[in-house]
Every structure is written in C-alpha cells, then in structure tokens.
Design brief:
With about 140 residues, this protein is mainly β. It has a single domain, classed as Cupredoxins -  blue copper proteins (Immunoglobulin-like, Sandwich). The protein is about 10% helix and about 40% strand. Strand 10 and strand 11 form a beta hairpin. The N and C termini lie far apart (about 45 Å). The N terminus is likely disordered.
C-alpha cells in the first residue's frame, strides 16, 4: 500500500520537477513579463583589445540564437556569459545560466567563430566577457 502511494507521489512530482533546470527551460521556473518566447536572434559581435561592439545584446527567452564573434584585436579573445541568481520559491535552481554551447573559446586576432544556442528562460541581465586572462571588457545580454 505504501509503495503505491509513493509511486503515485513520484509520478505527480515529475512534471513539476521537469519545469526546473539551470537554463529554466519551462515557464514553471520563471515569469515571462512580455508574454513572448522563442523566435530567432542573430548577432555579429566584434571584440577588440578594449571592448565588445555592440556591448548590449537583447533576445527573447528561449530564442534560438546564432552569434558570430569577430576578433579585431591583437590578442586572442572569446565570449562567455555569466550566470545570474534567480529568486524562486518553487524548488527550482537558484542560478540561471546560458548553455555551454553559448561559450566561444578564444579566437585568434583577425579570426571569427560562430555558435548557435538557446537563450535561457529566466529573464534578466546576464553579463558577458572575453574569458581571456587579463581581459576586462564586458557587455550585457538582456533576456526579455
């Protein structure tokens, strides 16, 4: 009898747990303020030895995004987005991150690299940087 009750509880919990994830893949972990999700976004991002251009990127949550990084500097630079804290009371993760596929390893001067990824669901302002030792340039990826 107890095994049946436990099985029923676990089956009812699976849908709720599946809404949680580090990328907030479901609306169960994050509010969508503008009611729009998905779509596509394409960015041509350049990085010099001192700055990203543009320094602010915007995309809808859950958008399929293609980002090309072109290094116009004299040293190698990459692209990496930091995680943000996500406040919630429903048992979902307390941090939200872009997927690993959003990171572009160091690119040589005068070279480019492209990646495609899905923007995380939790809306917010995610900081990004180069990831190269000594680099201080930064930007913001706004998920709306």
């Amino acid at each position: 009898m107890h095994k049946l009750a436990l099985a029923a509880f676990l089956m009812s919990a699976i849908p709720a747990l599946s809404q949680c994830g580090s990328t907030g893949s479901s609306a169960g972990c994050a509010d969508d303020r503008n009611g729009v999700q998905g779509g596509t976004a394409t960015f041509d991002l350049s990085v010099s030895d001192t700055a990203f251009s543009p320094s602010i990127l915007k995309a809808e949550n859950l958008a399929t995004t293609t980002l090309t990084l072109t290094n116009t500097g004299t040293r190698p630079h990459g692209f990496a987005v930091q995680c943000i804290a996500t406040a919630n009371g429903n048992g979902c993760p307390t941090t939200s991150c872009f997927p690993d596929s959003a990171t572009i390893p160091l690119v040589a001067p005068n070279a480019s690299a492209t990646t495609t990824f899905t923007v995380p669901n939790p809306e917010g302002i995610y900081d990004f940087g180069s990831g190269a030792p000594g680099d201080t340039m930064a930007g913001q990826f706004i998920v709306q």
